[in-house]
Known about the structure:
The structure holds two protein chains of two kinds.
Chain A lengths: L5 H14 L11 E7 L6 H20 L8 E7 L4 H14 L4 E3 L4 H13 L4 E3 L15 E3 L4 H15 L5 E6 L2 H16 L6 E5 L7 H9 L4 E5 L3 H14 L5 E3 L21 E6 L3 E2 L7 H10 L14 H20 L4 H9 L4 E2 L4 E2 L14 E5 L8 E2 L4
Parallel strand pairs in A: 1-2, 1-3, 3-4, 4-5, 6-7, 6-8, 9-10, 11-15
Antiparallel strand pairs in A: 10-14, 12-13
Chain B lengths: L1 H27 L6 H18 L4 H30 L5 H20 L21 H23 L1 H11 L1 H6 L4 H22 L1 H4 L5 H16 L4 H21 L5 H15 L14
Helix pairs in contact in B: 1-5, 1-6, 1-8, 1-10, 1-11, 2-3, 2-4, 2-8, 2-10, 3-4, 3-8, 5-6, 5-8, 6-8, 10-11, 10-12, 11-12
Amino acid sequence: MRWYPIPGVVAAIAVAICALPSLSCQKKEPLKIGWLSSLTGPLSTAAIAENRGVEFAVEEINEAGGINGQKIEIVTRDTAGDPTKAVNFAKELIFVDKVSAIIGPVNSGESLASIPVVAKEGIPNLIIGTLDELTDPVKYPRAFRAICTNSQWINAANDYALNVLKKSKIAIIADTSGYGTATAKAAAASLAKSGTTPVYTVLVDPNKTDLTDEMNKAKASGADVVMPWSASTGLLARLLNTRGDMGWNVPVVGHPVLMAAPIRPLLNKPDYLQNAFAAGYSSMTFDDSGKLPEATTKLRDKIRGRLGDGGEIGFSFWWVALGYDTVKLVEHAVKTAGSTEPAAIEKAFENTKNFPGVYATYSWGPGERNGYPAQAVVMNLAGSFKDGAYRAAPH
Amino acid sequence: MTVLVSGLASGALFAAAALIYNVMFSTSKVLSVATGHTAMLGGVFGAWFMSSLGLPPIVALLGSVATGAAFGFITDLVAIRRVLTRSDEHLWLLSTLALATMTQQAVALWWGTEPRPFPRLLPQGYSSGLADQKYWLPVAVALFLALGLELFYRQTLYGKLFMALSEDSFAARARGVPTGRLRELSYVMAGSMGGLAGFAAGQLTFAYFALGLTLSLNGFIALAAGGLGSNLGALVGGGALGMLNAVATYFIGGEYQNTVAVGLLMVVLLIKPEGLFGTKVARPV
């Protein structure tokens, strides 16, 4: 009787089955995305909200079957707002966790430190810091910015002061942090292009307990607009309190944090937010009929139950939308690229035109690494917060 | 005038921190990095007692003082006692820094990292200008603390024991003075002073988790400039530092504020190393 090599046949069949993509023996490895976020520490408020958006997008994509059948695994590292930690965690994500892309860090200070490290290893990086220097198609070709730039905020504020309010005697009050110092210079340079020189410029410690001197000087210099450039809620609240206590109803036009939720309880009187305008986003601005864009409303309704008590949203919703969009952008790039090869993802991002997100409609190009459209930065009434969004400033 | 008044208010808080340093230093020869954190806790807990628990200001004040006292006790227990008994080196610098960092982190996690409002303590409108309570309460409390300490040192037995311990702890121990107990008491006292100062300055600083290190640093500069161990020096050093900061910011710009503060320290130390009101200690050889 002839002997049949049964074990060999079985093994051959098994190998053949495994080779069939649709009948894979082994589950596909998840697509790992690194997420550098300052979930604790002084910059955590925005990061926690962004994290809600990131987690929700991952859940949504995975429930729909993942990206090309591959589930997403988000690898979160809490940088606590510390640039050193951001660099160390970026290395860990690249070398230990072997992620395919990195989202974050969530602020410019950390990003300045981590972007060169990520760029050196050629990993695609979605940037959510606003400082203009963070992107460079030559130095950091795989770093793509999803948030607007600091210049876009500055230009929107300057344009509003000069062309809508028709005021040209501008007092710039910035804080002494790296961000405040650089932004004060950038704001003055942007005004100079319009032929305007600030009547008063001052840098103050973000923890300075009183701004009476600075506001008195601004008033004495004849300023008809005060433009604060600081992300410090304490400093901005003190500025508004001083203006209110002085009885000086000068318009305040500037940084988005002017309309952030933590400012309001710090004000001596709620109406001290009157006549204050902050750079915001069209996606988070109610139209004349009190409605938000459809994509914003849709996401807000879907995620509302997960944000606190399920009632009205008590913080700026654009943070959630931005976090949500970053994951969707990675999904779009990987799907378009058809692989997780860094070069292919770079190409996919580079060829992205008018990708419809919630926070914005994104476009990049071969020499363009800033994806946020300038026209989508609008001015909001600082005191108009409602359910995570704002009303447009009078125009 | 506004420059001087706002500078004086900040300076009063620095002076209070310097006085707290003095109390702890007198019994332990330790300059605790967590000094400013006692005031931070006073402000944060004061705001919490009033805003979240709805307690009246006087009860909140007592609560803040008690919180500061408890923190002073914990500082001695955790960061000082064992370090001093086991080592003559300056390991307390490390242990108090660790305690300060942990405290700040814990408050940040619980209270949040954004400044929060501190309620109005006295019925007064917001248009009082320079007469606003946010300026004068810290000044009044710093003066109260300095006078209280002077009376305590001169008029009470415990005060005299503190001074004895400060001058020669070995001799004091040899004469039966309970040095450990006195050090413990001094830390509780220093903590309660911090709680009171932080509560009084709450409207000026807001209830903010990161206030501690700023106060520890500026309090130390005020102390070194005024003279270690001198309460008058602490008051003058704190007031001068606060006003100098304000004047420098006004005339030169805020970016030079810290340079001026550290510059003041260096100038005083170069000209009078023992500080303005400090005393030279001759070491017998």
